[in-house]
Design a protein that fits this description.
With about 325 residues, the chain is of the alpha+beta class. Helices cover about 35% and strands about 25% of the residues. The strands form 3 sheets. It has an 8-stranded mixed sheet with strand order 1-2-10-7-12-5-4-3. A 4-stranded antiparallel sheet has the order 6-11-8-9, with no helix packed on it. α1 links the parallel β1 and β2.
């Protein structure tokens, strides 16, 4: 009988953000900054708690709102359209039949959240609008903390300040319906995000898996208090390849439906330049200046979809 211990399940690095370690200039800020950069350089992502700002009540409220949204008639949900590919309603796709998602662009603007709410509920739904604004503000604040830590660590905070002025937030509410017998378990295909940064928050049903640099998959257990903080393709380019965007997928192993939320950052109306500070004798600049939204358009061409690394194909040197 084999008495060797079972292999230890891989886990992502976990970082706690508190009032103390999010005060710039303190020793705990610097210590946490090092953890953030190491996690992003080693994995492209990490899990995070932001307990002083994110409550269990808000966790419960935002998923109640998500369930209300997905209970709406299909013809109503399909009113959620966008000029940007995959930023509006997406569902009933043969390749990913379990997936359904809706998006709210520029969500940190109260007008955007209200406009979306009025589109879905013409008679109004104040709870949905208020909860959406509260939830996405928490994530936007966390994004700024993370990116300030990264940019200060690399000595490029002035470059980040310019990007921050043009940062837009897309809120995607996602549902994977229950899987039928003999139906595919693939909720979403392996991919990297086309965002700058992504922040994912899951309900209780697991399924999200992150691929490591040595081709192992890490299952990310859901937690009502934690977010998955993940670099997208554009962050990879902006950091001159220091941070890699990780491959990830969703596998539905059970038969329960699954809900998750994603807040994705995009750089609008600004050409992204790779900071010269990130180039030296050993690290030449790897990417040309580029437009984030034109990159999105490129990715959804046949050429972009077939590429193993579309950001390098689009603007790599």
């Amino acid at each position: 009988m084999d008495s060797s211990p079972a292999p230890k399940q891989l886990k992502l690095p976990h970082i706690e953000f508190s009032k103390e370690n999010t005060k710039q200039g303190t020793s705990s800020w610097l210590t946490t900054s090092k953890k953030v950069v190491c996690a992003l350089e080693d994995y492209g992502c990490f899990t995070a708690t932001y307990n002083d700002n994110f409550s269990l009540d808000l966790h419960n409220a935002i998923f109640r709102s998500a369930k209300q949204l997905f209970d709406l008639p299909l013809e109503t949900k399909r009113l959620n359209t966008s000029k940007t590919p995959s930023h509006g309603y997406l569902g009933q796709q043969p390749a990913i039949p379990l997936y359904e998602g809706l998006g709210i662009e520029d969500v940190t603007s109260p007008l955007a959240a209200q406009t979306f709410t009025n589109l879905m509920w013409p008679s109004g739904n104040a709870d949905f609008c208020e909860t959406t604004c509260l939830f996405t503000k928490v994530v936007a604040d966390l994004n700024q903390v993370v990116m300030r830590m990264v940019s200060q660590s690399y000595g490029i905070e002035n470059h980040y300040e310019r990007l921050l002025e043009s940062t837009s937030y897309l809120f995607r509410l996602i549902k994977y319906r229950e899987r039928q017998e003999k139906e595919t378990a693939l909720g979403i295909v392996p991919h990297t995000d086309k965002s700058f940064m992504s922040f994912l928050h899951q309900l209780q049903v697991p399924g999200l898996e992150i691929k490591t640099t040595n081709d192992q998959w890490i299952l990310v257990d859901p937690s009502p208090s934690s977010f998955v903080v993940m670099a997208g393709d554009v962050c990879m380019a902006w950091t001159n390849g220091r941070i890699q965007a990780p491959q990830h997928r969703v596998i539905m192993k059970g038969t329960e439906e699954r809900y998750s939320l994603g807040v994705f950052t995009f750089i609008k109306n600004q050409i992204i330049h790779i900071p010269e500070e990130l180039a030296d004798e050993e690290h030449e600049i790897q990417f040309q200046p580029f437009d984030h939204y034109k990159y999105l358009d490129f990715f959804y061409t046949d050429e972009g979809k077939k590429s193993k690394c579309p950001i390098k194909l689009y603007c790599g040197i």
